[in-house]
Amino acid sequence: MIFIGITGGIGSGKSFVCSLFKEKKIPVFHADEIAKEISERPDVKRELVREFGTSILTDEKVIDRKKLASIVFAEHGKLQLLNSILHPKVFLEFDAWKQTLASSNRYGLAEAALLFESGMDEKLDYVLSVIANDELRINRVMKRDNVKSDVVLSRIKNQLQSQELIERSDFILQNNGTKEELKPRIDFFDVLFSSLTQRKELQ
User: How far, in Å, are 28, 44, 71, 143 from residue 189 at the CA level?
Assistant: First the structure.
């Protein structure tokens, strides 16, 4: 098997891209979802509260994602600190997940917003970046998260910009159109990734 990373800036549509691959029975490791689960582990939660304060907890004593995001995206050093706490644990989960996959799988995907920043790309064979124009991304996130444009812009500024993603990735998927326009492109990459798996197996 080979493993392909799926990344892209906030609002680029990478999660929807992954859902289309899932329809083709391709296994997907969602690094950001795993990071959320890890952050609720008692020992990790205590560390997060120690570093970022009790204000990141709700009345029910669970992590307030929006509050934590407002802290880490306001100061670059805080984001690096959060990543240093969570990413090594996510990598361990990814390694364990790979071991559970059947050899019949053609390839596997790993979705991560901070794929390059975390160093997760080093654990993968290829990287596909989902790219969309900033105006469309902002509108998508405003509608999805019910936040104002300045909040979305602050998150965009703390992520790799589209040009750098393009330069560092093996494959690019433009996602400025409709969902129906996207599906044939997923078909193309499904065939491509399957062929890359076959080529690796023959080596």
Answer: 15, 37, 37, 29
Residue 48 lies in a domain: yes
CA–CA distance, 180 with 182 (Å, rounded to integer): 5
pLDDT at 103 over 80: no
pLDDT tens digits for 121-143?
A: 999 999 999 999 999 999 999 99
- For residues 115, 32, 180 and 11, what is the CA-based torsion angle, rounded to 10 degrees? -80
Is-contact 27 136, C-beta < 8 A?
no
Using an 8 Å Cβ cutoff, are 127 and 23 in contact? Answer: no
* CATH code at position 170: 3.40.50.300
User: How many domains in the chain?
Assistant: 1
How many degrees, rounded to 5, is the angle at CA 174 between CA 158 and CA 180?
A: 125
